[in-house]
Amino acid sequence: MTKTDLWLLVAGAIAASINAAAGGGTLLSFPALLAAGLTPLAANVTSTVGLLPGSLASVWAYRKELWALKAEGVLILIPALLGGAVGAWALLQLGNGVFVRIVPLLLLFAAGVLAAQPWLQKLVQRRAAPASGAPGRSAGSAVVTGTTAGLAPAIAVVLFISVYAGYFGAGAGILFLGAMGLILSRPLGELNALKVLSALAANSVGAATFVLLEWRHPTGALSLRSALPLAAGAIAGGYGGVHLARKLPAWALRGFASCVGLAIALWLAVR
Questions:
Q1: Where are the domains of the chain?
Q2: For residue 27, what are the CA distances in angstroms to 8, 139, 147, 170, 243?
Q3: CA–CA separation, 68 vs 141, rounded Å?
Q4: How many CB atoms are located within 10 Å of the residue 183 CB?
Q5: Residue 45 has pLDDT above 50, yes or no
Q6: How far from each other are the two terminal CA atoms of the chain, in whole angstroms?
């Protein structure tokens, strides 16, 4: 294993942990891949593919919550898959030239969303708190028995965010959590599980689109050599990040990722 492989392994573990616990892990995996010598577009595509196993591990860790939300989860999967495919297709069609010009703005946006997460989370918690004591929900139970009102706007919002997730994706998990928390009245743990599922769906179809288009017309936009160590680290980080989300505050990871995103955005803008 080379030093670059080890660097990407560690970056994948930390990025996947941040995605599960707070959101915004791409703000670490993306610059790590840039440092490994990839172009901005290739770093973005490779990050999506490499972090996918971490999302799978997070979904597995949230399996109990998601089983209780299977009706909502199935409905949200459809727009997440569609939006992720559209975003990934747009990324490869527009190419590296367009991506390089707008990626500083995307990074600034993602860093801002990540920094605003405490405010968004407070809004979500205020809305989710009544659901914890709603009729039909016993103490400690995660079974949802209330109305599905609000799912229609949630589906529309998930579609919109999934297009962004397929194109770039940094901070998309936070957008998922904030948007669904303001629309759906659910406990915070269940909303975070839906966030992880939505991000997985969008990233899965995005990664599949990248792999398929790159296989049909090789352009070098995907570096499997770099994706493998990133994925290996992401598996451990994705599963462990859920436990961090349940036990530890994520302010340090969130602040670090925000600062990294801001620094990389400024660096790319100057370039």
A1: 3-270
A2: 13, 37, 36, 6, 21
A3: 9
A4: 20
A5: yes
A6: 31
Residue with tokens 């965010």: 161
Cβ neighbours of 92 (radius 10 Å): 20
DSSP 22-89: TS-THHHHHHHHHHTT--HHHHHHHHHHHHHHHHHHHHHHTHHHHHHTHHHHHHHHHHHHHHHHHHHH
pLDDT 10s digits, 88-126:
999 888 888 888 888 788 877 777 776 776 676 676 666
pTM of the model: 0.74
State the Cα–Cα distance between residues 76 and 37, nearest whole angstrom.
36
DSSP 1: -
Residue in the structure block whose two tokens are 């680290």: 233
Pick from 13, 9, 60, 47: nearest CA to 236: 13
Question: What token pair was written down for 39?
Answer: 């172009």
Q: What percent of the chain has pLDDT over 90?
A: 22
Mean pLDDT score of the chain: 78
Tokens for 62, please give them: 């949230």
Number of residues in the chain: 271
Interatomic CA distance for residues 242 and 175, integer angstroms = 18
Residue 24: CB atoms within 10 Å: 30
* Contacts for 148-155: CB closer than 8 Å, 24+ residues apart: 148/71, 148/72, 150/183, 150/184, 150/185, 151/72, 151/75, 151/184, 153/183, 154/76, 154/179, 154/180, 154/183, 154/184, 155/75, 155/76, 155/78, 155/79
Q: Which tokens go with 120?
A: 């968004």
Provide the 10 A C-beta neighbour count for residue 155: 18
